[in-house]
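Box S1 | Example of a co-folding query
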Amino acid sequence: MSAQIIDGKKVSKDVREELKAKCEDLKAKGVEPCLAVVLVGDDPGSQVYVRNKERGCAEVGIKSIAYRLDAGITQQTLLELVDKLNRDPAVHGILVQLPLPKHLDEKEVLRLIDPKKDVDGFHVVNAGSLFTGEGGGFVSCTPQGIMRLIASTGVSIEGKNAVVIGRSNIVGKPMAMLLLNANATVTVCHSRTKNLKEIAKGADILVVAIGRPEFVTGDMIKSGAVVIDVGMNRVDGKLKGDVKFDEAKEVAGYVTPVPGGVGPTTITMLLSNTLQAAEAQG
Ligand code: GUN
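Box S1 (continued) | Returned holo structure for guanine
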């Protein structure tokens, strides 16, 4: 059997068309949606991500302002910038690219972002509203995009065994919450999990965000499963996912490629959150 490849670019393109129209509507009402992106230091990966976020904004008509700050800036300077952006009514969304250099306190910075402008969904208020199922807050972009990818397969989530490998605040934990809120039976695995292979093999929906190249092999996948690969690992200059794609596609029912799977939808959800913020703030 050969799996269907989930086309993240196509899913993304369709959503971006809707977002373009929404952005035009807001502009017609006198609101110019605006995202502030803060990048500290010169990590090459983060530079690429930020550039792609700026490009995404331009594509749907969102204004973006990038603040590229020296790696050596103080915590105080960064907090002052976030405070200024919080108070600027022309800025609807604020994104601080992670990771920050080691000497900076990431948690304190994220806590200062106004939850109404927290388009990454990282603030405890937004994470909390996802956790309680209250809704209405911002949801972390990668897991939100993954829900779209799963929806594109037509496979229903309710009652299914979903396994998430990875427990980060950015992907693993919010992913587990979204799947739970959609009535899946959810197991979260991580680097210390025993019998990970057996648990993964029981998954109808398997989301892999562990950051290890080709960690999931074909023998860890249930026949017909939906396999979502969040990995972006550089190996000898080549981009590798967390799933051994060639093996996965022989066993799974659906699988995302790397690149071209999860990546494009992550940025699309950021654009969607920014328009949601602009609409709410008016
Ligand atoms: N670093 C890796 N992923 C992300 C993300 O989704 N948002 C931000 N701000 N930083 C990241």
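The chain has a mean pLDDT of 97. The longest strand covers residues 34-40.
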